[in-house]
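Worked problem 6 (solution included).
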Amino acid sequence: MDSRDYMTPTPGMAKDDDTVVTRISTVSEAQTFRVYRRRFFGLAQLVLLNIVVSWDWLTFSAVSKTASEYFRISEGAINWMSTAFLFAFCFASPIVIWTLNKGGPRSSIITASVLLLVGNWVRYAGTRAGNGNFGVAMLGQILIGFAQPFVLTAPTRYSDIWFTDHGRTSATAVASLANPFGGALGQLIGPLLATDPSQIPNLVLYVSIISSVACVPSFFVPARPPTPPSLASGTEKPPLLASLRELVTRTEFWLIFFPFSIYVGLFNSISSLLNQILYPHGFSETEAGITGALLIVVGLVSAGILSPIIDRLKHYLGTMKILIPILAATYIGFIFAPNSNSVAAPYVVAALLGAASFCILPVALEYLVELTYPMSPEIPSTICWTGGQIFGAAFILIENALKAGPKDNPPFHMTRALIFQAVIAAAVVPLPLCIGLFGTDIRKRRLEAECQRVRSEEEAIIRQS
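Solution. The predicted structure is:
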């Protein structure tokens, strides 16, 4: 089905309307669907919040050695800033599902903004109090962690409410991938702003100001369009508990859940520990920051190229089956990159890893919505994101435990942690390859529902004529 076949402009179109789509649902009743330019305001705010919440997450990880000196604690304790952030995501997830399901994206966006405002300034107070109060800073970090799921899991729900099938994947990609872009900014800018321990409070201050400014537009985001953009968007969703009961019985959901969550977890862990992975081999915090930025920026560019193509072709499953083995191979390659004699190897491997990771992310999220339709999109996406945070926190703890000792060569290297990552990445490759086998359902239910309804309406028009 190509929505352009039935889009017709009308003289009464509102000033900010892009398109009016009219369908005949019965012989005597017309149903109108519109997409509004104002949808881009809410999308832009989701992008902005996902950028700042991820930047907040990696504020200390990007300068782990410097931060540990400022707070007079170990780097392992600094790692808990990332780990606690991820666990906070998990605790907030049930409330997030309920908020998105009952209140929609606007309620979720406002809740995230309030938590971000409070969390950032509590964290800044912790860095200023008594030459660094780690406990107060950790409290602020946890509050920011509570904020993240409210915006990270919202894109599929937002795109379902505001966009047609020709823009959903791109909208989901833009909003979802803004999150790691914020991480790239944190990895790149943090080491430049905090070159010695005394500059840590100013680093947190600058990030807090940026985050506060980014939160202000949230209170002006519209709740939902006056009319739905498509038939699927206007369909009444099943109750939350009924959807959850059905979801756990879907084999194809679990075949996506585990690779999605594990690869998100691996990405979270490598983003958090990248500085500690590279500096034992002679790389500086700045070079580690550039590696992290390449990991994310190349991924964003790649996803920006692929997402519009997927929007048109709808080849979700085939794309995943091609990219996931490539992604696993890049984790294997990362074992050898830090031991090279040049920074080029980490740069190249990180770029390839980012490209594969970011291209898979929006495709998997949109395919989940297709498989689980007519469930509300935030239900499977929130569960998958929560799994990613749980695995990410667990991987950070495991990899920190696998760090070499001071007498190893080089001291404190993380080769064992990289081997662990590669083994886990390779182990889950067969799961998505099994989708479509053994009786699993691979139908694109949302697209099929729209096509079926359009055919029914066309037949009604023909009978009337």
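Discussion: The domain at 3-176+200-217+232-464 is CATH 1.20.1250.20 (Growth Hormone; Chain: A;).
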